[in-house]
Design goal:
The protein is mainly α. Among the domains are: 98-257, no CATH class; 369-467, no CATH class. It is 74% helix and 4% strand.
Amino acid sequence: MPSESPGSGITAGPGNEKGEHDLPARQAERDDQAEIERLRAEVSYLRAHSGAGTDGASVTGSRRGRWHAWVSAVLIVLGCVLAPLAVIGVWAGNQVSDTDRYVATVAPLIDQPPIQHALSAKITTVITSQLDVQALVNQAASQLAADRAPRLSTLLKNFSGQIASGANGLIGQAVARVVASPAMARVWVAANRTAHAGLVRVLSGQGGGAFSVVNNQVTISLGPFITQAEQALANQGLSFAAKLPSVNPTFTLFEAPDLSKAQAGYRLVSTLRWVLPFLSIALLAAGVYVARRRRRALLRAALGLSASMLVLGAALAIARGVYLNSVPQSTLPPDAAAALFDTFLRFLKDGLRLILVIGLVIAAGAFFTGPSNVAVQTRQGLRSGIGWLRARIERTGLQPGPAGAWTRARKRPLQIGVIALAALIFVFWGQPTLAVAIWIVVLLLVALGVIELIGGRTGGPEPAPPS
């Protein structure tokens, strides 16, 4: 039978049913108290930032808010406009100042079939014009006639065209194999490494070196490649190739009718290649700092930065079409010109894709840490999921113990420290790729999840963050 303890007002009995019924009530009371604290914090924030007070103070705050908004918008727009120029400046500067970077840019060209075909055709034409198989066949026929072999001499003269064509075809096949060989790839890399100083002179308008400008065409000397091909032909039994006279023709890399304008633009960009990135970042940061709603300003700046990279990508696509239409087929076949353009600008395209992704990541972070319903529900869902995982782990007997209390007391500094560490790793990586950026973001999310798992709080809704 249940019994009632004197003066207690609580009925004791099996399972203490009244005490159990009080648990939901106490939990509801705690939730109500947490909701009240959240509302108080939100009201305090709104009062502090609304400019409320006298009518004059309210009007002054409104005017100041409009002034801040305009200045912030202008700064962010200027930063986004300068961002593509900064990317181009850094890319152009790397091509000139960093020999290894330049060699890494042009090295894959020798592996492109269109470039191999164009080089093979050029080298074959040079060798066959110097060799003149037709003249050699006629000379052999005359020698046979002098040696009293008229029938053989006549036969040789009748088939001289077919013999010359077959010999030229054999030379072309041999040259194609040489151009596609690893030995030629090494020659290509060595020649481009040596010619890097010449490229600097071309872009600065001086010309000279292995690279030169002739009739608005940027060309590279083929002397080392012809020497390599002649040695390979001699090794294959065509000993006459080793006796050919030394020649040094050129291979056109770019048709540049507006080279002078490009050089002037390059000199300007290369001069500002260190200033433009810092200026763009400073303008974006100042635009966010001046804004009254900094989180919203950060979201807009990040989206604007990503949009500027899309504009740069569209401009490069237009420039590619203009370039391909401007190159005569007699100078460079269309497929070779396309391969050259795409290979030479691939690091620039990788850079704009990287910045585009970074902008989207920052925009996503600014949005999902904001006060919108979607952001709040997303955070609550993640926190509930982590809480469920924490409860499952605790049921197995694993407890965070002192580490959990320590992490809970320092959770915000730990989160800021992890984000700062990820930013430093990205900045000092050297030349981060898109894959590196994705891995850094993934590891950052994992680290933040671990901090929340170990030091997360339970119970009560989160306070509303400022916008």
